[in-house]
């Protein structure tokens, strides 16, 4: 079961729920950029008088922000959209809006598949929600707002945030890479960098509002500034962000291994606030597959990059994304990926079954891999990676790590959660002296594959 998004706003209790107030709720699928788009959509709804609720039944506006990077996400979302049909029957005034990458890809086809949808909002139209709602209220007719291309720069809109401590800040939109499996360039358009001044201003303000950590977002952050000569490059941006006094930590995602360079590595090395965590999606450990994926690098190039990073910042953590079952991936080529994983020893790998996305070059490649084979390979990959992750995490046992206290863990109110600069999740039993947003030193007692557990020390 998917859960509604949670925002850092007060939720009215049942007793004070006012029948004159209109409530909205949102469900978001997919990447951080999509999560942040929901924050901007929710902010706009709040600006026209809607209040947030977690309850589908109380909502008079339900927004689903969608992802189409893999078929499995699409299936789940269609299921969710189907579930809303009954609500619409019992409340004909309910407004149902579909935003995000599926909206951009399928456009009016969504109306045909699910006639109970009222609004379809493309990835380039997020900033227009207020106008779209107004148009709907005036015309009482469904609205399709899907531009084929983005404006160079979408204007800023009111935003409400998910967290209190950590915030997302987009630095660029779109992707020019056209990896052969990937739908993103088709639904998010060409690369557009946000003005440096706007980014710095937003981060400064977030710091004043109490946020401690920001994550710079982009499909390919290393291309920052490539589309215009006005703002410098990604390293220049990192240097400028590092100097924003009001915040403590800076993360970024996602990097393309081909575009991360010595200047970026040195900037991170010499920075005070940029976290020592590198997420560098390798996608495959086979040169033949990397070529077919149009990734623009070889395994030797990647090895050298990792060597450089580890030489410059030995304690940095390294994570990756891997796709198994790309067309033409033989057992031997898959074995190369397994060996590569063992050689590089990533802290963590996010592993995916290749999913055929129509319209992408890989969808029409011959030698598509059967699902059962893909699943077997995924399992093998995860087994190898889990062992490595555990071994790496065990090295932290009995050491002291520093985290920013983010709040209670998802499962247990009495347990707190924080992350290290290397992005390790740390849990400990609440002592009562901790304050959300403060730094805490934790002595690690138990290491697991995905998390570290420990005790607060003074
Ligand atoms: N099938 C499977 N995984 C994909 N990704 C992108 N497109 C596909 C696809 N068609 C993965 C990549 C990317 C991550 C965000 O999603 O590994 O890095
Ligand atoms: Fe997709 Fe490749 Fe662009 Fe990443 S870099 S969004 S995988 S096309």
Automatic annotation (TrEMBL):
Predominant cellular place of this UniProt entry's protein: cytoplasm
Keyword tRNA processing: yes
Xref: CDD domains: Radical_SAM
Known cofactor(s): [4Fe-4S] cluster
A family per Pfam: TRAM
Protein localization: Cytoplasm
Molecular function (Gene Ontology), one example: tRNA-2-methylthio-N(6)-dimethylallyladenosine(37) synthase activity
SUPFAM superfamilies (alphabetical): Radical SAM enzymes
Catalytic activity as recorded in UniProt: N(6)-dimethylallyladenosine(37) in tRNA + (sulfur carrier)-SH + AH2 + 2 S-adenosyl-L-methionine = 2-methylsulfanyl-N(6)-dimethylallyladenosine(37) in tRNA + (sulfur carrier)-H + 5'-deoxyadenosine + L-methionine + A + S-adenosyl-L-homocysteine + 2 H(+)
Manner of cofactor binding, per the entry note: Binds 2 [4Fe-4S] clusters. One cluster is coordinated with 3 cysteines and an exchangeable S-adenosyl-L-methionine.
Described purpose of this protein according to its UniProt entry: Catalyzes the methylthiolation of N6-(dimethylallyl)adenosine (i(6)A), leading to the formation of 2-methylthio-N6-(dimethylallyl)adenosine (ms(2)i(6)A) at position 37 in tRNAs that read codons beginning with uridine.
HAMAP family per record: tRNA_metthiotr_MiaB (MF_01864)
Assembly and binders: Monomer.
Xref: NCBIfam families: miaB-methiolase, MiaB/RimO family radical SAM methylthiotransferase
Protein name: tRNA-2-methylthio-N(6)-dimethylallyladenosine synthase
Species the sequence originates in: Pelosinus fermentans B4
